[in-house]
Amino acid sequence: MTGSPPSMDFFIDAFQWHRKFLPPLVRQDGLLLLSETDLFMLGSPGVLAVERVLREGVNLASHCKTEGTPALLAEMLHALEALVRQGFARPARADDAEPYVVPDFSSPAARVRVSEHVDAIVLSDAVSHDAAMRWGRAVTAGDAGLTLVFCDDYLDPRLGPIDTQQRTTGWPWLLVKPTGERAMAGPLFTPHAPAATACWHCLAHRLIRNRPARAWWQGRHGGRTVGMPVRVDAKLVEDRLEALLPLALGLVSQSGQQVWTLEPREPHAVVARPQCPQCGNAGLMAHLQRQPITPMPCLSSARPDGGWRTMPASATVERLARHVDPLCGVITRVVPLGVEAEDALTVYRSEIFRTAPVHGDLSASALVQVCLGKGMFTDQSRASAMCEAVERYAAFSSIRATRPLSSQPHRR
Ligand SMILES: [Zn+2]
Prior knowledge:
Layout: E1 15-17, E2 25-27, E3 30-34, E4 39-42, H1 45-56, H2 60-67, H3 73-85, E5 89-91, E6 100-101, E7 110-113, E8 118-122, H4 129-138, E9 146-150, H5 159-169, E10 173-177, E11 184-189, H6 200-209, H7 212-220, E12 230-231, H8 234-253, E13 258-262, E14 265-269, H9 284-290, E15 301-302, E16 308-309, H10 313-320, E17 333-336, E18 347-353, E19 368-374, H11 378-401
Parallel strand pairs: 8-9, 9-10
Antiparallel strand pairs: 1-5, 2-3, 3-4, 6-12, 7-8, 10-11, 11-13, 13-14, 15-16, 17-18, 18-19
Helix pairs in contact: 1-3, 10-11
């Protein structure tokens, strides 16, 4: 059995699903495995037959003894070997070199008072009191104060009340996640700032929209936030905290409105949603949809390519650039379809994530909406693809948020 440690006996040894996955969801068409960053759909008869053995953590030998020799035993052995080799399953006796925990969103937060202007709220069991103190002493907070919030999950529902509390007091706060597959820090939420900046709900809205598999999974649980298993080994968390600290200091000193990830090390712009029910106007979109269309004068320019534009396509591309991001953006990505060439028409492809209906298809294509844009020049094609994506994104949102337009009074 290529790639498997020689000590393993797939009939005698007991195996279990890798702990980075939630317990598998078994459907008629296959088995779903969801982790913090991935969704896998496995459908072979051998995998489906061995699922219960892995879920119960028993070996095939004892399974045969109690249940009788299954008809698919050969397929089960083959599936087991493949699942272990590919990292979906692991020996049940394996030492936990990579311990995982599912965060308990019902446990109370630990508060750490660092100084007159700095405190910390710890929602992660992997972050020690000493680590929170060390971070609190390293940051320099102005008179506005600062709260550091350590969590295992940026969608932890306990962050909602914290956001409310911070907006009530006007204290800025910085979110930090040193555990799991994806460590991150930021943004610095600045409820005291005169300019509108995002609140946690603005960020959470974008994050869950960009995690369609998790959103789908949560939909099956009545919308309740499902805690995902996260890696919490002490050395990993210690290294992450050390690597995140300089990024956090930069965010605090510059009131950074970005989430910084470590792998890859890059910023993700966080923007305020004017229609946010918590920090904006919840009725904004419905109000705008009910307004009559009123023609008004604007700058326009006729171009030899046949288009009428109120601004250059390059300006549209620049204006929407901060919304292109697979983590916090509206548009997941925008790329040329094929090779760009000076003398040829270039078509651009954009993508947005979309949440599949709870009882509908969950294939990879059901979680991504592809849009295309074309034009005479590169900027036109890119702008066209981006605007198409924004339009689709808004359509998916408005379908959920408002009653059908056809039921509204007709306006001229
Ligand atoms: Zn908000």
